[in-house]
């Protein structure tokens, strides 16, 4: 059960990040500095989890169901807020980083690189979830690169997402030591962490010393 705990811990941290972002949008009534495409990608990943989770050990724990339903509800709420407050931001990711493009790339990668040897299986959806979540954060990072100053709650939101993936990398490591090798899925989370490595450093520095977080190039 240790591996299941680590997997759910990662998504629990992601849920905490999403709740923090939901609070930020509901109180400030704007989505300035936030990527709509990132939220759409995470919603697609959550919907995908609903399908493949039933074929895994995750169904053995009540927390998995609870976390998944909460994550779905929060992601739907975030996408809804992004829809009604879309006019409060003029910054959007370029076309090649939009959610439909990222979804197609994630689906292609899932078909090419997934556990097992069958072209069509539940493992394709597992891989799709990992890839869409990894690439889904790229539009948000791109937007933050264009901003001179990152709003504090937004910075904590992204920081928690990075930590959630770091926890899941530990999960893949535990599975590897148990003889279950999912290197293609591990690589998705590894790429996610690499994408965010410099941001994680700046965020941890901000937590330690205070002050503004400047992520611009």
UniProtKB/TrEMBL annotation:
One GO term of the biological process aspect: vesicle-mediated transport
A GO cellular-component term linked to this record: endoplasmic reticulum membrane
Chief localization: endoplasmic reticulum
UniProt topology in membrane: Multi-pass membrane protein
Any one GO molecular-function label of the UniProt entry: ER retention sequence binding
Key words of the record: Endoplasmic reticulum, ER-Golgi transport, Membrane, Protein transport, Receptor, Transmembrane, Transmembrane helix, Transport
Membrane-spanning segments: 6-23, 30-52, 68-87, 99-117, 123-144, 156-176, 182-202
Localization, UniProt: Endoplasmic reticulum membrane
Keyword Magnesium: no
Entry annotated with the keyword Endoplasmic reticulum: yes
Classification via PANTHER family: ER LUMEN PROTEIN RETAINING RECEPTOR
Family membership: Belongs to the ERD2 family.
Protein name per UniProt: ER lumen protein-retaining receptor
């Amino acid at each position: 059960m240790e591996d299941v705990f680590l997997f759910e811990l990662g998504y629990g941290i992601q849920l905490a990040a999403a709740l923090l972002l939901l609070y930020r949008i509901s109180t400030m009534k704007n989505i300035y500095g936030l990527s709509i495409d990132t939220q759409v990608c995470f919603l697609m990943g959550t919907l995908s989890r609903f399908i493949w989770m039933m074929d895994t050990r995750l169904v053995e724990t009540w927390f998995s169901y609870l976390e998944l339903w909460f994550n779905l509800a929060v992601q739907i709420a975030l996408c809804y807020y992004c829809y009604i407050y879309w006019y409060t931001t003029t910054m959007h990711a370029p076309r090649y980083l939009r959610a439909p493009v990222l979804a197609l790339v994630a689906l292609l990668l899932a078909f090419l690189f997934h556990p097992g040897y069958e072209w069509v299986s539940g493992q394709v959806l597992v891989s799709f979830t990992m890839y869409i979540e990894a690439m889904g954060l790229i539009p948000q990072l791109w937007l933050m690169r264009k901003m001179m100053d990152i709003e504090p709650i937004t910075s904590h939101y992204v920081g928690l997402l990075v930590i959630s993936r770091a926890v899941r990398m530990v999960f893949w490591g535990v599975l590897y030591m148990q003889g279950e090798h999912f290197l293609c899925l591990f690589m998705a989370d590894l790429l996610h962490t690499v994408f965010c490595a410099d941001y994680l450093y700046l965020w941890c520095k901000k937590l330690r010393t205070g002050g503004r977080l400047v992520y611009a190039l």
